[in-house]
Every structure is written in C-alpha cells, then in structure tokens.
Design goal:
Strand content: 15-25%
Helix content: 10-25%
Number of domains: 3
CATH architecture of the largest domain: Alpha-Beta Barrel
CATH topology of the largest domain: TIM Barrel
Distance between the termini: 89 Å
Number of helices: 13
Structural class: alpha/beta
Largest sheet: 8 strands, parallel, barrel
Length: about 650
C-alpha cells in the first residue's frame, strides 16, 4: 500500500474561518472522507492536533502500525494534519496515533468520524453519508409544524430501552424502531419525538450524555443509514424529531477528546474551569475559536445531514454559571468579578443565531433550571436565543403538589397556581422527563397518593392539568400508560401492563389529550402569550378546585378547564363564563373509557345570565372526583334544520 499522498480539502478561506471560530461546516473537511483520486479509491484524513509532534493514521489496513501512514502538518499554523491514503475505503477501522510533545504516544478516535465500532470497542470507521431521502414534503412544510403558535407535544424516548426483544435483553434496531416506534407515536398523536442522545458513547448507562462520537449515531442499533431511515420514517408519518445535544461537557475516556494532542486542547487546564464536579467530566473551552467551530459544526451536522427538526440542549445551567455545583474557592470569577461564564454565554448566543440563520424552520430548546432571564428570547433583545425552555419550576411544584394526600392539598394550593406568575416570561415547555423516573424517585404513577384507583385518577388529573396549562409539553416514555416501575435501561418498558384496563385507560387518556390539544387552537395558538390564558377561579383552596380559560386567536372561542384535585364530588359547582349559550364537555378524565368512575355528568349545560367570577354568565356543573373537565361553548346563534328543510336561527 502506498504511503500518504499530500492532498487537502481545505482552502485558505476554510482555514481563516476555522482560526476565527466561524467555520460551521467542519464535517465537510475534517475527519475521514472516502473518495476517488487519480482514478483510484482511497480516503482523505484530516485532524486538528496543533500541539502534537507527529500524527499518523493506524488501522486494520496497516496492522495498526504508526510508521506506515504519517499525516502531513499544514504550513499555515492551523494545527491540522492531513493526507490521502490509496486503497482505504468504506468500512476500514482506524484511529489517530498522536505523538505528544512530552513523549507520550496516544491513540485517539476521530472526533469527526461518521461511524464507530460497537462499544466497548473504540475504533472509528471510514463511512459515507449516502442515502435517498423520502421526506421532501415534510421538509418543505416543516416551518408550519415547528412554529411557536402550533401544537408541540413531545414523546421523550431512550432508543435502547423503549422496547426490548423477547427475553428483555436486546434492544430494537433503528429499522425495527422505524416500524414499531413510529406507528406507536403516530397512534398516540404526539407531534414530535425527542431522542435522548443518539451520538456514540462508550458507556451505555450514561444514557448517551457522555459523548465520544459527536458526528455518529451509536452503532449499537445499526448504521448511519439505518438511523437516517428511522428519521425519514418519522417525517413521512408527519412527526418531528428532536435530538438531545450535549455541549456542556465531555468524558475523559482515553480514546476521546480529553488530552487529545497531549494538551487540554478542547477543555481548560485549570480544573476550576475545565473539570465538572458532578459528572467527573471535562468542560469545553468556549473561548477557543476552534472549539466553537467544532461544537456549532456538530449542531448543524445533525440538522443538515440527518434532517433533525430541532436540538434540545442539555444542562444549559451548568454552562451559564462558573460556580455551578462548586463551593467558594473552587471557581474563578469572570473579568467583572461575577459568576457568569461570559464565554459560554457568547457561545450559546452564537449557536442559536447560527442555527436559526441556517435552518430557520428548526428549533432549539434549553434544559435550563434557573431564573436566568431571556433564555428563550432573541439575541438582539439580550436573550440567549433559544426557541423554548424547559419549565423546571412547574415540574417540581406540580409533582410536589400531587404527592400530597388530597385532604392536605388545600394547604398547598399556591404550588399549583404559582407557575402562572411567570408562565409567559419564557417560551416554556412543561417537562415530565426521564429525570423524574430514575435514581429512586419511582415512576409517576407510584408517586401519586392513595389506593390504585386514586393513583390513576391523580395521574389522569395531572396530565389533564399539564395538557391545558400554557406552554408546550414533554412526556417520557412509559408515563403515558402508567408504567409502575422505575425506568430501567436494561429491561425497558413494561408493555405487558397494557393487558390491564387501568393502564389501557391511561394510554387512551393521553391519546385523547394529544388529539384535543392538536385540534383545539385555543390551547396552542397563544400558548406563550398572557392573552391566551385567563383565570376563572384560582383561589378556591378550600375545595382544591382550579378553573381557567384558554384562548386562541379567536378570543370568542375559549375553552374552560376545571380541575378537581380531591376525590370529593362537587355538585352544582358554579363557574363564571364570558358568554351565554350551551357549554359542552369536550374532555372528562373521569370517563370510564379512561379508567374513571364514570360519575354522572351532564354532557352540556346552559349558561345563565348572572354575574360570577367577574363574568356576565355562569354555569353549574358537577365535578367528578379527582378529575379534569374541559368545556367548549357551542351556544350563540345556532343553526337548526326545520321540518320544511329550511334553516332557522335560534337565539340564546
């Protein structure tokens, strides 16, 4: 086999952009690229290792011999080593052998590799990205799906544990998921699916949050083309796909980014800046131009090559604060003496600006757990530029409220109403994520108080409240049918529970909520605006009843939501409404279809001309135990067909 041929994919302009931290398509240049040169097939390799004495490509094609294929350092001071090797093609295993300046010899996987060996093996694989997409219709109209005034109901999934094959040990492949998961999400009428990190990671129980293969879907479930097939299948079914993305830290595995060229190339040498105390991992140096290019290129890669519809950015709070999870003396203040990480803030703003410039129909979502101002506000107004932000305060308050026995909820009423105080300060997504069903917290259904009936009624009520609260929503897999055990990566979900009526009923309830939410403009058109919400009665703590209106663009077509958070039936409960006519029940979580008691409730009620709750009309309804009712006005001028076949008007 011939030695390395001098060749480059880089232009001078590429190098200038890279040095300036403005090259956001590095995956087209760095990494391994199989191609034809001089009539022969081979692969071009390029890697950034500015502090190395020497870099060579080792692999199964040269017996892992570091002397056979040394790469050439570029002359321009970019720190890039490159070269073309004839005869090396798709499927070849390789690593970079890095001779550090201190004499150490390191073997590193390719940060830009498109495919990796199945862990625990750590070799990179030469691969291509050829695939015939069939989602042009989706991509053309995606701007309408991802808009902030459209429904956004997300099903969060861990690919490796959603469903196991018979025996409970082996995960489904990407292509099997394209059949089973896509049809299930479609049946349940979620608008989007969100995958916990699919990027290659060495340790399966890290759930993907300790990434080493930034440009490669994990090989545990198939090839890159298999993952494209899964993405394609979702799009053809009319379902968006969000990917978890982790720019907050990276693991210290020997084959990864840590100590890449014998120095702290991607992170900080000072552990007060470069070491994450919670996850025992490395923190990116956001002030280094080449690192910013790497990270933003990685974000655009998944939107570009894999047609992802958005990125949910993990652990944003840990990026924003220099003292995150650190005691006094364990962190370094910024140049102004504060605890804000100015370089990370600048990076997040540039990341969001770049994503929305290049993919204006995509969306970015921040997992940010503090009161940082303007996370989901545009950069030009001083915000971080995300499209949405997880509403962690709502999640904590709601779960804490529901864990109380209903008899005590009157003393905690403010916990269930407080979220509206700040609900419109950001574009909030309400998350009941994987973090709430692990580490001894138990499943959602197990966190509900009471006997079996009350636990299921409580969870149905929680979901009803969640789906009618302002904002979008996210639910982790298993919650939709009342998974009873804590999420287990090894055994997957307990699908066998669906043989029982209470679990089937829960599943039908979530399906009904998704259907109603996605077909009722009053719940999504102004889901981030204060004019889309109005209290009816928020202070009935003695009965633990909550009532409010949701409104869309047509304010004359609101929906009325009434939540009874106790198992006590409230007969003749009066509610003020803005207009007369007939108000009909559109959703009732106590319906027997969903596992409820089936308490007798009139399907519609007539409004009276009488002031209540500051409204000119009132209705009187019976509130079922531990239930949510959603009512719509069907009154006003009604059209009825006469016996003569002509239409006649009927006034209120």
């Amino acid at each position: 086999m011939a030695n390395v041929i001098t060749y480059s994919l880089f232009t001078e302009f590429d190098i200038n952009l890279f040095k300036a931290g403005k090259h956001f398509r590095l995956y087209q240049k760095l990494g391994s690229h199989p191609m034809e040169l001089d009539g022969q097939h081979g692969t071009y390799f390029a890697v950034w290792a500015p502090n190395a004495q020497a870099v060579s490509v080792i692999g199964d094609f040269n017996g892992w011999n570091r002397h056979t294929h040394p790469l050439n350092p570029r002359w321009d001071g970019s720190g890039i080593w490159e070269g073309y090797i004839h005869g090396v093609g798709k499927g070849a295993l390789y690593k970079y052998h890095v001779h550090a300046r201190d004499g150490r010899r390191l073997q590193k996987g390719d940060p830009y590799a498109l495919f990796w060996e199945i862990p625990p093996n750590t070799g990179s694989i030469v691969w291509d990205l050829e695939y015939q997409w069939n989602d042009s219709g989706w991509m053309k109209n995606r701007h309408a799906v991802n808009a902030l005034d459209k429904p956004f109901s997300v099903y969060e999934v861990n690919i490796g544990s959603w469903r196991k094959r018979a025996g409970g040990a082996e995960s489904l492949s990407y292509r099997e998921l394209a059949d089973e998961l896509v049809s299930y999400v479609k049946e349940m009428e979620f608008t989007h699916v969100e995958f916990m990190p699919v990027m290659e990671h060495p340790y399966f129980p890290s759930w993907g949050y300790q990434t080493t293969g930034y440009f490669a879907p994990t090989s545990r479930f198939g090839t890159p083309q298999d993952f494209m097939y899964l993405m394609d299948a979702f799009h053809q079914a009319g379902i968006g796909v969000l990917l978890d993305w982790v720019p907050s830290h990276f693991p210290s595995d020997a084959h990864g980014l840590a100590d890449f060229d014998g120095t702290h190339l991607y992170d900080h040498a000072d552990p007060r800046l470069g070491f994450h105390p919670d996850w025992k991992s490395c923190i990116y140096n956001y002030g280094r131009n080449e690192v910013r290019s790497f990270l933003i290129s990685n974000a655009l890669f998944w939107l570009d090559i894999y047609h992802a519809d958005g990125l949910r950015v993990d652990a944003v709070a840990s990026m924003l604060y220099l003292d995150y999870s650190r005691k006094q003396g364990e962190w370094i203040p910024n140049i102004y003496g504060g605890n804000e990480n100015l370089e990370a803030i600048a990076f997040l703003k540039e990341f969001n600006e770049t994503v929305y410039k290049e993919f204006p129909d995509a969306i970015t979502i921040a997992e940010e757990s503090t009161a940082w101002s303007g996370v989901s506000r545009p950069v030009f107004t001083g915000g971080l530029g995300f499209g949405q932000k997880w509403m962690m305060g709502w999640m904590h308050d709601t779960l804490n409220y529901f864990k109380n026995d209903p008899i005590h909820r009157r003393f905690h009423h403010n916990m269930i109403t407080f979220s509206i105080v700040y609900a419109f300060s950001e574009n909030f997504m309400l998350p009941l994520s994987h973090d709430e069903v692990v580490h001894g917290k138990g499943s959602l259904i197990r966190r509900m108080p009471g006997d079996e009936w009350q636990r299921f009624a409580n969870l149905r009520t929680l979901f009803g409240y969640m789906f009618t609260h302002p904002g979008t929503r996210l639910l982790f897999m298993g919650g939709e049918f009342g998974q009873t055990s804590e999420w287990s990566l090894e055994k997957g979900l307990d699908w066998w529970l669906l043989q029982y009526d209470v679990h089937k009923g829960m599943k039908e309830w979530v399906k009904a909520l998704n259907h109603y939410y996605t077909h009722q403009p009053a719940l999504y058109e102004k889901q981030f605006a204060p004019e889309g919400f109005e209290w009816v009665e928020h202070n009935d703590h003695s009965n633990s009843v909550l009532s409010y209106m949701r409104k869309g663009a047509d304010a004359d077509k609101p929906v009325l939501v009434v939540c009874n958070f106790t198992p006590v039936v409230r007969e003749g409960y009066e509610l003020g409404v803005p207009a007369g006519g007939t108000w009909k029940i559109a959703l009732n979580s106590d319906d027997k279809t969903y596992g409820g008691s089936g308490y007798a409730v009139a399907t519609s009620v007539k409004a009276k001309k009488e002031t209540k709750h500051g409204k000119p009309y009132l209705i009187s309804v019976n509130l079922p135990p531990l239930a949510v009712l959603v009512l719509e006005r069907s009154g006003g001028k009604e059209t009825k067909k006469s016996t003569t076949g002509k239409s006649q008007k009927k006034l209120d």
